[in-house]
UniProtKB/TrEMBL annotation:
GO molecular function: oxidoreductase activity, acting on the CH-OH group of donors, NAD or NADP as acceptor
NCBIfam families attached to this UniProt entry: PRK07231.1
PANTHER family: 2-DEHYDRO-3-DEOXY-D-GLUCONATE 5-DEHYDROGENASE, SHORT-CHAIN DEHYDROGENASES/REDUCTASES FAMILY MEMBER
Classification of source organism: Bacteria, Bacillati, Bacillota, Bacilli, Bacillales
Family affiliation: Belongs to the short-chain dehydrogenases/reductases (SDR) family.
Record keywords: Oxidoreductase
Protein name per its UniProtKB record: 2-deoxy-D-gluconate 3-dehydrogenase
Family matches, as SUPFAM superfamilies: NAD(P)-binding Rossmann-fold domains
GO BP term (any one): bile acid metabolic process
Top-level lineage group: Bacteria
Tagged with keyword Aminoacyl-tRNA synthetase: no
Length: 250
């Protein structure tokens, strides 16, 4: 029920962090994977994950550039010989600054990658999935899809939008056999959080807010990613699943 043998997946932002862990887990479950990332590390990550089993490919693309996004998506589809069963939109940006100090250029950059690129990639994938009569789209929300956060207005607004986009696209495409869901991670140990993890004031404040008593690891999101990619979740669509060690329940 959880096997992904024969399935073909595109995962953005998978050169590192949560995306890399999800790419590894989908590969381990049997899927052929394309890592779509702006980073030069994508090639090494693909080689590392794809040593055995189904192929893992790397495609370099900048999701902030709309033309390049389309080209990179097409290159990924070509590598998968025209089929896309799973799209995971994991690439994301954060900038921590007070609202008063935040530039509108940064606001636009964060919205372009965190929201507009997710919308466009989802539509490009759904065109193929509608033809196939099946597909899984998984977006990366955040606990800041629900909470306002602190010094992260653009990011939390973008992740709130992801929760709504997930529901909107689910409503439109559920009848085509496509499930659109989101994962909402809490405080995870990736480079995105190096600054707050190393902040002597904020780090202990955050520790005290996590009922599980620890930060999440990239591997902590992988079970939910495989579940939402597999037939086990075929009747689940339009939901945002927190993977946060209990933060939102507190
Ligand atoms: N780390 C956390 O605590 C946390 C919590 C909640 C949600 N999330 C979300 O999960 C997702 C993954 O986060 P992460 O911690 O793995 O981040 P990360 O910074 O470790 O990795 C992000 C990846 O996205 C890629 N990327 C950035 N801009 C890009 C662009 N313009 N085009 C193509 N690729 C680009 C980067 O090269 C990198 O490989 C993000 O959407 C993030 O908002 C993370």
């Amino acid at each position: 029920m959880f096997t992904l043998t024969g399935k073909k997946a595109i995962i953005t932002g998978a050169a590192q962090g949560l995306g890399k862990a999800m790419a590894t887990a989908l590969h381990d479950a049997g899927a052929e994977v394309v890592i779509l990332d702006i980073s030069d590390r994508a090639q090494d990550t693909a080689a590392e994950i794809g040593k055995e089993g189904a192929s893992v490919h790397a495609v370099k693309g900048n999701l902030m550039d709309r033309e390049n996004l389309e080209e990179a998506f097409q290159e990924a589809v070509n590598k998968l010989e025209g089929r896309v069963d799973i799209l995971i939109n994991s690439a994301g940006l954060i900038e921590r600054k007070s609202a008063m100090d935040f530039s509108l250029e940064s606001w636009d950059r964060i919205f372009e990658v965190n929201v507009s690129a997710v919308f466009q990639l989802s539509r490009l994938a759904a065109r193929i999935m509608i033809e196939q009569g099946s597909g899984k789209i998984i977006n990366m929300g955040s606990i800041l899809s629900f909470l306002g956060g602190f010094n992260a207005a653009a990011y939390s607004t973008s992740k709130g939008a992801i929760a709504q986009l997930t529901k909107s696209l689910s409503n439109e495409w559920a009848g085509h056999g496509i499930q659109v869901n989101a994962i909402a991670p809490g405080y995870m140990l990736t480079t995105m959080n190096d600054d707050i993890k190393n902040d002597e004031v904020r780090s202990p404040q955050i520790n005290a807010r996590i009922p599980a008593g620890r930060w999440g690891t990239p591997e902590d999101v992988t079970g939910t990613a495989v579940f939402l990619s597999s037939a086990a979740s075929d009747y689940i669509t339009g939901v945002v699943i927190p993977v946060d060690g209990g933060v939102l329940a507190r």
